User: Which sequence fits this backbone?
């Protein structure tokens, strides 16, 4: 490689390196703000902003969905299997909202209840036909495979 | 004289008239292959593949969304590599290839954002949210726009191409952020489904996976065909005064 090209290559790579370091540092500094949601355990530990709206994420606890008749209000419990927080929401729920679904709610804490202004359902990264899902559910019921095994269903 | 480390055909292809003929010969075949693959992939994805256990038929947007998202990253890498070659070696062909990548990549990024938005409304419950994956993909779109804008802001096309190549090269720091955002942060966007390093860990049924991969092949072939065609016209306009272009024109219109 001739010296001129070598110099250009070194300059280009130095600029790239400098920008990469700058970006890395900014991202590292913004780490807290980049966090999209807090889990019930984090809220319990006081990590969520107090008195400000934030996002609460977790799984909709089994049997906790309770619809107030005559209104669009739904009460349910968000859990991460360690801590649980009751949530109330008025509005239209997304298609994927159901028991056991990863869900992200936006709102604020009011007297121990999370009053949500928005409820989003998070999709897990598993894609399979309904027959396969039924077979897995059946196998789980019959204890053929452990409950938390395989299929990357982690939220 | 510096010694060349590259095989002979690289130098041959780097010459504009040679590349022009090479691209003209390959483009129709690549485009035909891309069309065939797209028809097979869409048939497999929209007709043959079973519905999803949670989303029903709505998941079928992944056959457009995911290949487009892969292309938005792949084309950016191609653009940055061509840009580096253009910056260091000042090869005219590399400048044109880098600049012609940008509109195609921007189009795929836009398709990714729009299809994701269409799917997000019924499934998540929102058209848009500022999570790390969505935001970094939007930054990627703006990077493509920046490259296109910077290129066109210069009177001297070659200077413009070099300035925009530097932006393309520097913007590559965004790519790991796009790719790993779903692992580094809690995002609304789901994590990786298809694991190329460890296919056994992919959490998608085989009947859904193969149309997805065929669609990915189709979009790659389309990109190659499109970049060959775009580079041909780019060469013609940049070399319009040169002997080989005049000869070409006089042959076409005697």
Assistant:
């Amino acid at each position: 490689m001739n010296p001129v090209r070598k110099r250009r290559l070194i300059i280009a790579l130095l600029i790239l390196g400098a920008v990469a370091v700058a970006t890395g540092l900014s991202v590292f500094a913004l780490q807290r703000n980049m966090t999209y949601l807090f889990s019930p355990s984090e809220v319990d530990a006081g990590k969520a902003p107090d008195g400000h709206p934030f996002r609460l994420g977790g799984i909709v606890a089994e049997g906790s969905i309770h619809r107030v008749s005559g209104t669009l209000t739904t009460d349910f419990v968000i859990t991460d299997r360690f801590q649980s927080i009751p949530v109330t929401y008025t509005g239209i729920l997304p298609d994927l909202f159901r028991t056991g679904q990863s869900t992200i709610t936006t709102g604020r804490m009011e007297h121990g209840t999370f009053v949500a202004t928005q409820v989003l359902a998070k999709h897990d990264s598993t894609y399979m036909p309904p027959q396969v899902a039924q077979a897995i559910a059946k196998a789980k019921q019959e204890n053929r495979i452990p409950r938390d095994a395989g299929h990357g269903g982690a939220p | 004289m510096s010694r060349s480390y590259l095989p002979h055909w690289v130098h041959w292809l780097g010459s504009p008239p040679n590349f022009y003929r090479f691209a003209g010969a390959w483009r129709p075949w690549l485009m035909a292959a891309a069309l065939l693959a797209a028809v097979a992939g869409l048939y497999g994805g929209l007709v043959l593949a079973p519905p999803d256990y949670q989303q029903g038929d709505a998941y079928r947007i992944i056959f457009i969304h995911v290949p487009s998202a892969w292309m938005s990253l792949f084309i950016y890498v191609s653009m940055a590599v061509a840009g580096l070659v253009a910056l260091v070696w000042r090869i005219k062909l590399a400048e044109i290839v880098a600049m012609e990548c940008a509109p195609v990549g921007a189009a795929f990024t836009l398709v990714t954002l729009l299809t994701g938005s269409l799917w997000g409304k019924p499934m998540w419950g929102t058209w848009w949210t500022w999570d790390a994956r969505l935001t970094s993909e939007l930054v990627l779109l703006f990077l493509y726009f920046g490259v296109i804008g910077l290129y066109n802001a210069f009177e001297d096309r070659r200077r413009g191409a070099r300035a925009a190549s530097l932006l393309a090269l520097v913007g590559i720091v965004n790519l790991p952020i796009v790719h790993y955002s779903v692992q580094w942060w809690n995002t609304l966007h789901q994590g990786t489904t298809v694991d190329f390093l460890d296919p056994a860990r992919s959490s998608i049924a085989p009947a859904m996976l193969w149309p997805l991969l065929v669609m990915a092949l189709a979009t790659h072939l389309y990109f190659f065909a499109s970049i060959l065609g775009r580079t041909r016209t780019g060469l013609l306009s940049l070399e319009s005064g040169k002997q080989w272009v005049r000869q070409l024109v006089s042959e076409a219109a005697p």
About this structure: The first strand of chain A starts at residue 54 and ends at 60.
